[in-house]
Structure formats: structure tokens, C-alpha cells
Amino acid sequence: MRIEVEQVGKRFGRQRALAGVTLDIPAGARVALVGPNGSGKSTLLKILVGLLGFEGRVRLGGLDRRSDGPAIASRLAYVPQVAPLAAATVGDLVRAVAGVRGIDARRVADRAAGMELDLAAIGRKSFRALSGGMRQKVLLALALAVDASLYVLDEPTASLDARGRAAFLRLYRTIAPSATLVLCSHRLEEIRSLVDHVVLLEEGRVAFDGGAASFLAGRTPSIVELLSLEGAAGGLGA
Fold this sequence. Notes:
Elements: E1 3-12, E2 15-25, E3 30-34, H1 41-48, E4 55-60, E5 63-64, H2 69-73, E6 76-79, H3 90-101, H4 105-114, H5 119-122, H6 132-144, E7 150-154, H7 162-172, E8 180-184, H8 188-194, E9 197-202, E10 205-211, H9 212-217
Parallel strand pairs: 3-8, 3-9, 6-7, 7-8
Antiparallel strand pairs: 1-2, 1-4, 4-5, 9-10
Helix pairs in contact: 4-6, 6-7
């Protein structure tokens, strides 16, 4: 699904979150959306998935974001940065979403198992009673069980431990190569291994739009060497 964003702006009262954002992302691209807190990343993602109004123009797969919402929704999968605190049980939530999306709930369970989460064991628990990491795994399983044309993942590994992140990375690689993916992340190791393109937002504007290798080349971490003086003549504090 090609993403075309033209002069998109968004205000919250007097605060401008996005100012004239223009992007053209080809179908099948793997894109990292990065930037400091408050740069407009989550706002842009919510515009793409239809959760916020906006100024400007957005087209997804040739469809207009404003007028073709239902047609876009059927081809999109989204994981928010903060999981909703739904009172429904995990089982009811999975069945409801699977029914709306027209997928087999067993496929959701299979995706969850790929992240070492047994949905049957927690099926009667309230979704909001789960830990942050378990809620995130359920949402990821629901999203990745869909054969979407566009996946939008907002900080998908923020609540996961190292083992959970590794499991997500393995599952991520099962996404069809023809699908477009937009991943919001602060982790350079995820950018290095998961995406081929980076969009950097700063103060609501595009500060970088290009290849991941080019982006990372200018951000190679520095190495600081410390020389221990222990045992040196006189010693410290002598």
C-alpha cells in the first residue's frame, strides 16, 4: 500500500503537532518513524489509521483517507502505543476482533504462541488486568494475524522484555514482503534489522526522509575508553 502525505498539518488548540508534512512511501516499504518525544510521530500514525482529523491530503493505496475510510480499514492493521484498558476478557476480545476482521481466532492464538503467550491460559482474564507486556503481545497477535496491506505499529516493543522483543522480531519476519509497514521506534537496533527507510520528525516537520543505512551512518555510537589508574604510583586519594 503506497502512502502519500501532502502538506499535512494538525493542531491541538494552540499547539501545532504537525506542520506541512509531505511524504511519498512506496508500497512494500519498511519504514521507521523516529524523532524526539513531542515531535508528532503518534499524531501522524493516528492520522494514517483514521483516528484524527487533519489539514492537507492523505492517500493510502490510492484511496482518500477522508472519503474511503471503510475500504482502507479492511486493509490495515494497527497496534497503538498504549493498550486500551478494555474490561472484556481476553477471549471475548479476541473473538470479537477476529469476527470483525474475518479471521480464524486460532490464527491469533498461533501468533500469540509465537511470542510465547498462551491465549487459552489467559482467556478468562480481563484484558486490562494483564501486565503491560502481555497486553502488548495480545495486540500484536491480533494485528499480525491479519493479512494486511499496511501495518502501523506504534512503539510495539516498548512494554516487552528482551525475550519478548526477540520473539516479536521472529514473528515480524513472517509479514508478507508485499505489505507496507510503518514502525515507530526509539531503538536503533530495531531500525537496523527491521526497516529499509527512515522518516525523522522534529517539531512536527520532516527532518530526514531517506534510506535506513544513510540515517544510521550519521548516528554511529561513540566509544569512550576509560583508563583505570588503580595501582598507579601514588594512587587516587593518596
